[in-house]
Amino acid sequence: MISFDLSSEQQLLVDTVTKFASNELRKAARAADEDAQLPRPLIETGWTLGLVPSNLPEAYGGFGNPSALNGVLAAEALAYGDLSAALHILAPALAAYPIALCGTEEQKQTYLRRFAIDEFFPATAAFVEPIV
Fold first, then answer.
1. What is the 3-state secondary structure of 93-119?
2. What is the pLDDT of residues 24-46, one digit of tens each?
3. Taken in order 119, 63, 100, 38, is the CA torsion positive or negative?
4. Contacts of 124-131 spanning 24+ positions with Cβ under 8 A
5. H/E/C letters for each residue in the chain?
């Protein structure tokens, strides 16, 4: 039989992120919407949860524990507090993960360590198509 119960590590992840989302993000969400800006300390605190670095290889400063399921659990728990803040905190993953998976060694050495530090590194990625 398949069990859909979370492991103890996954439950700890969900509990930790949900606590931050409830206690920090939810309280700041309305003011952030009205000011059209997220407070930098809030983003820094969210970054220190290590959600992006957890999926990066240890060789580049990450925690070396890539897991799509853990990423989804963390994103869902973070979005409970405020979706726009969750997207802001997790946006660097759009740049970091493709480099980790498909980048050259030089790209990995140059960029991945920036995503594994304690200070939020603002980055994202975009896809564009040529106009025909």
1. HHHHHHHHHHCCHHHHHHHHHHHCCCC
2. 999 999 999 899 998 999 999 99
3. negative
4. 124/91, 124/92, 124/94, 124/95, 125/94, 125/95, 125/98
5. CCCCCCCHHHHHHHHHHHHHHHHHHHHHHHHHHHHCCCCHHHHHHHHCCCCCHHHCCHHHCCCCCCCHHHHHHHHHHHHHHCHHHHHHHHCCHHHHHHHHHHCCHHHHHHHHHHHCCCCCCCCCCCCCCCCC
Task: Choose among 44, 42, 47, 40: nearest CA to 25.
Answer: 42
Give the separation between CA 116 and CA 61, rounded to whole angstroms: 5
CA contacts within 13 A on the Cβ side of 75: 13
**Does the pLDDT of residue 1 top 80, yes or no?**
no
The pLDDT value given to residue 127 = 82
- Identify the residue whose tokens are 């970091």: 96
